From TrEMBL:
One Pfam family named in its UniProt record: Rhomboid
Database matches in InterPro entries: Peptidase_S54_rhomboid_dom, Rhomboid-like_sf, Rhomboid_protease_S54
Protein name: Rhomboid family intramembrane serine protease
Family (UniProt): Belongs to the peptidase S54 family.
Keywords of the record: Hydrolase, Membrane, Protease, Transmembrane, Transmembrane helix
Membrane topology value: Multi-pass membrane protein
Length: 498
């Protein structure tokens, strides 16, 4: 079962800074510090097999299981071929705190000489283990270590594990960070990790396992989200078996669904080696923290209300898209106009309105709507590409924006270092202010230089000298070109720069 809230669009106004930082940290840890662990583990296992440790620890492990009355594990161990038993012990005792403690105490050795020999051989192996980053920071069952209770939440066992957790972190972070603020959000995330680790330790105390992953901390966000958003209807995606769809329901309804799912799996599917215990503990911890935040008035209700208003438009947006697919332009236009009136800066609505006018061959509406779309100040690369395409279409249809609007557009894109877009705005080279256009072309050339795009830098300098030969920026362009190509003849004499 998958339930994922997808309720608030990502924009500059709602950008979750701390969520983004947490995602980057998790990715950095996985692809950075954890990346060498596979080779380090191989070296560790090889060292164990080449040492005499197996000679001492294999019989000690058998006595240990017998003393713990772990007959299931003992029976499994006895079915392992004798030649493979050292490797089995090395693998299965890496996080067995009780076994290591029993070895160190000497209680698992019948002969003191064997114990002394083991004490001589073991430190080198422990040093090898300490080279494995994951083993130094994961949560070990039956051990209370405050650092590991947090650090294990930044480790992952594989790329799929990482991607799944980061997807939920992004979706929940957008909703929770905006509702409680960045500082409190970070506190909920870290304390959720501690709560999840504590639940796992309580459930698995006495076992020899280990846990890692951000899912416990993310579960804390799930619990906090349900309580903080409370009875506010939210839009979420669900997937059960082969059935999936979008549904809107009060956020608090998700709490028993999420928690019940984890508890049921903990009881019925504990053998799957998934941290259902940590998930349940995280959800409960997050719900408690969410209740405290609500009770102490530390919730941004305006953010939640704004998100609710945004969500109520989704039905009209979906219906408008359906009308567009059926080429029912008038019906789509009516719905889109309503959305644009309520949310004038919503890019996807403005783009859809422009396309309705274009497809309906309404040149007047096409020009006006295109201008309003171009006026949206966005740094999203995909949205900027759409604006460039709309600008090209308006040029081709002889509906180009006014020169002053075009220059304003070029300035905005230059300020944002969107150089391809800025050049698209400047390309026609028309307007009532050649001096301003020359200045913008020169800024564009310098922008390409700063990005080390040498070919584009020289090309723009040449265009500047050809189109605005009388402007001071043309003299500067000639000077830079002369510096680049070794004083080659490129036009009138170079004016000394002051």
């Amino acid at each position: 079962m998958l339930i994922l809230p997808l309720h608030h669009p990502l924009s500059r106004a709602t950008f979750p800074l701390v969520t983004t930082v947490l995602i980057l940290v998790n990715v950095l840890v996985f692809f950075g510090w954890q990346s060498g662990d596979e080779a380090a583990m191989a070296r560790t296992q090889q060292h164990y097999l080449q040492s005499d440790l197996g000679r001492y620890e294999v019989p000690a492990y058998e006595r240990y299981l017998l003393g713990k009355r772990r007959m299931d594990l003992l029976e499994q161990f006895k079915h392992v071929p004798a030649s493979a038993q050292p490797g089995y012990v090395a693998t299965h005792t890496l996080t067995d705190i009780a076994f290591i403690a029993a070895l160190r105490s000497g209680e698992l050795f019948d002969d003191e000489a064997d114990w002394n020999a083991w004490k001589v051989a073991r430190p080198a192996y422990d040093a090898q283990i300490d080279q494995v980053f994951t083993l130094r920071h994961l949560l070990r069952s039956s051990e209370i270590d405050p650092w590991r209770m947090v650090s294990s939440a930044f480790l992952h066992g594989g790329i799929v594990h990482l991607l799944g957790n980061m997807l939920f972190l992004l979706a929940l972070g957008l909703l929770v960070e905006g509702a409680i603020g960045s500082g409190r959000f970070l506190g909920v995330y870290l304390l959720g990790a501690v709560g999840a680790s504590a639940a796992s330790l309580m459930w698995r105390w006495g076992e020899a396992g280990a846990g890692l992953g951000a899912s416990g901390a993310v579960a804390g966000l799930m619990g906090a989200f349900c309580v903080v958003w409370g009875r506010q209807p939210v839009r979420f995606f669900y997937w059960v078996g082969v059935v999936f769809d979008y549904v809107r329901a009060p956020a608090i309804w998700l709490l028993p669904l999420w928690l019940g799912w984890e508890v049921w799996n903990l009881i019925a599917n504990d053998h799957l080696e998934i941290g259902f215990d940590a998930h349940a503990g995280g959800i409960v911890s997050g719900a408690i923290m969410g209740a405290v935040l609500v009770a102490t008035g530390q919730v941004r209700h305006d953010f939640i209300r704004d998100a609710g208003t945004q969500a109520r438009t989704d039905g009209r947006w979906q219906r408008a898209q359906l009308h567009l697919c059926r080429m029912q332009l008038a019906e789509a236009d009516r719905l889109l106009e309503e959305l644009a009136l309520e949310q004038p800066a919503r890019f996807d609505v403005r783009l859809a309105l422009y396309r309705v006018a274009r497809n309906g061959q309404r040149s007047g509406a096409m020009a006006g709507r295109g201008a309003r779309l171009l006026a949206i100040d966005t740094l999203d690369s995909e949205e900027v590409r759409e604006q460039i395409a709309v600008l090209a279409e308006l040029d081709a249809a002889a509906l180009a924006p006014k020169p002053s609007d075009r220059l304003a557009l070029a300035r905005r894109w230059l300020d944002a270092a969107q150089l391809d877009a800025a050049e698209a705005a400047l390309l026609p080279g028309s307007g009532n202010d050649p001096s301003e256009q020359a200045r913008l072309w020169f800024r564009l050339a310098l922008g390409w230089r700063d990005q080390r795009a040498d070919d584009a830098h020289q090309r723009v300098l040449r265009l500047l000298t050809e189109r605005y030969p009388q402007q001071p920026e043309a003299d500067k362009a000639r000077f830079l070109l002369a510096e680049l190509i070794g004083q080659e003849e490129i036009g009138p004499a170079v004016t000394v720069l002051r």
